[in-house]
Automatic annotation (TrEMBL):
UniProt KW keywords: Amino-acid transport, ATP-binding, Nucleotide-binding, Transport
Domain ABC transporter: 11-269
Name of the protein described by the UniProt record: ABC transporter ATP-binding protein
Biological process according to GO: D-alanine transmembrane transport; L-alanine transport; L-isoleucine import across plasma membrane; L-valine import across plasma membrane
Family in the record: Belongs to the ABC transporter superfamily.
Domain of life: Bacteria
One Pfam match: ABC_tran
The keyword Ribonucleoprotein appears for this protein: no
Organism: Telmatospirillum siberiense
Coiled-coil parts of chain: none
Amino acid sequence: MTIAANPTPLLRVEHLTMRFGGLFAINDLSFAAKQQEITAIIGPNGAGKTTVFNCLTGFYKPSSGRLTLTAPDSDTPHLLERMDGFCITKDAKVARTFQNIRLFSGMSVLENLLVAQHNALMRASVYSLAGLLNLKSYRVKERQSIEKAKYWLEKIGLTAQADWSAGNLPYGSQRRLEIARAMCTDPVLLCLDEPAAGLNPKESLELNDLLLDIRREQRIGILLIEHDMSVVMNISDHIVVLDHGARIADGSPIEIRNDPAVIRAYLGADEDEDLPQEIATDIRHAAQREAR
Ligand SMILES: Nc1ncnc2c1ncn2[C@@H]1O[C@H](COP(=O)(O)OP(=O)(O)OP(=O)(O)O)[C@@H](O)[C@H]1O
């Protein structure tokens, strides 16, 4: 997909550069992501994937470039590079998860989903007055928050564990809870940083189903950083490949599988075993096809 193909994508990244001293973690990167699509960002270790997320979510101020988010029901684009992280979540409605799970492990599963709705509840409480007086408007919002939490508990199959401490959940369930918690903020763009890391094959399949379900039902855009190619190739609509901070390919899963620049970037790894297994298999198949 080219950027020109859709004049108003959900997210437009233009000429993004992020420098750390002399190191260009991201170097003049441009791509676009659409609503109701899963856009994967892949690339070898250190390619700059997480730095892209950190720029999008306000953890880093980009050295240069423009990050424009245009929500489907809004005429006013948000220029993310000019916003603070807190406002990026609250106003631009960008949510993210992290490579290392960051749940409130001492809180219950349900509480994790309610805390995520803190902003909406604070607004409904008129910053405490309506809450203190227990006014109807506040109680309605509170009930809605609980309903939303229950909806997501059911979606991720954790209704029976609602009262468990989040830290006591099995690893795969914690990963799903993180996604549900992000969804409780009503994002228009959900950024997932290696959600399949540490999952077994069955859990990876469940993750695929959950993400496809979110795309279909919530109609939001998903940005996905992932090394697990069984996830990337099966559920992505569009893949952007980075190497050394620059975009080396951009296209559909089939285009990316057969792109020589992608194959070269991954073959740059020291040993064949360093490659994600599916990429290594893809590369072997591509080489066999070429030899025929
Ligand atoms: N805060 C920072 N200070 C200095 N260098 C940084 C910082 N953050 C990232 N980098 C560097 O930027 C480059 C890109 O890092 P990044 O974490 O974005 O890569 P990645 O593609 O997400 O890697 P991985 O797949 O291993 O998670 C790396 O060389 C990294 O060391």
